[in-house]
Each structure stands twice: as C-alpha cells, then as structure tokens.
Amino acid sequence: MRKMTQSEKIYKIVSLIPEGKVTTYGNLARLTGIRSPRLVGRFLHKNPDPEKIPCHRVVNIKGQIAVGYAFGGAQEQAERLQAEGVEVGDNKVNLRKYLWEM
Questions:
Q1: CA 84 to CA 17: how far, in whole Å?
Q2: What is the pLDDT of residues 60-93, one digit of tens each?
Q3: What is the CATH number of the domain that holds 15?
Q4: In this structure, is residue 102 part of a structural domain?
Q5: 94 assigned to active site
Q6: Is position 96 within any domain?
Q7: Nearest to 55 by CA among 91, 85, 98, 12
Q8: Which of 23, 26, 57, 60 is most buried, judged by most C-beta within 10 A?
C-alpha cells in the first residue's frame, strides 16, 4: 500500500473539520508529523479542492484568520466562517469556543 504524502494527510484531516469549527496550523502540523506550521500553510495555499477540503477552517495559534487566504483573501475566509456560524471579530476567532481537535 502506498504511503500518504504530507499534503494528503493534511487534506484528509482538514476535510474532517466540522462546519462551525476551526483548527490551527500548529494542530495540523502535530497531527501529521510536520515540523513547521508554516509548511502546513503552504500546503493549504495549494489546496486542490477548496470545496471538499475546507481550508478556510484553519487559523493561526491566536485564532487569527489568514491575511493571505489563497481563495479570496481574509475577507472571504471570514465570510465563509461566519456563514457557518463562527463569530469573527477583528479578523480573529475565539478558539475556546470554536476550536476542533482530533
């Protein structure tokens, strides 16, 4: 059986994040064995299917949305999260309320 690539691992986990929840780049790095949360961000920036792999549900360790969100910028990420019931204020999400951990 073929071993999953790092990006495939990330995409698989991101596809499990439920609507109305978020996780962090650091959590994804930990879960996939990747040393750098920034590398996770690079993989998500190249997301091949944003509809099935909801990378808008990934924020930084402070709950901040991505200024350089690859699929329409920070405003688009905020709007997608808000449409799912996640409150976004000052480009930030309350991780105590919305954090999903696997």
A1: 12
A2: 999 999 888 888 899 999 999 999 999 999 999 9
A3: 1.10.10.10
A4: no
A5: no
A6: no
A7: 12
A8: 57
